[in-house]
Amino acid sequence: MDTQNLEKAATRIQSWWRGTVVRRTLLHAALRAWIIQCWWRSMQAKMLEQRRRLALRLYTCQEWAVVKVQAQVRMWQARRRFLQARQAACVIQSHWRWHASQTRGLIRGRYEVRASRLELDIEILMT
Prior knowledge:
Blueprint: H1 3-103, E1 106-113, E2 118-125
Antiparallel strand pairs: 1-2
């Protein structure tokens, strides 16, 4: 083999080696980029999940606050109706006691409670 052929062969071997080194470097760079992209996607998913949980927690707190306010209002309304009914019962009782003390008679009667009204038949016999 002459020197020119040897130089050509050496040049081919060197170019093959440089190509192999460049391809290996590019492969390593691509793998590193892929690893970084996977890590970044997982971090984005974690941040999204954290934001979703925070939004859910805030929504839950607001819903509970609304439920508590509604319960307080309903309790206040029920108590007001109860107090009105108790006051009405006291008025009726006081009038009834006054009437009973005035008449001192015999009272017969019947009452019947229907869906939304009270039917009352009273018969008073004076003695």
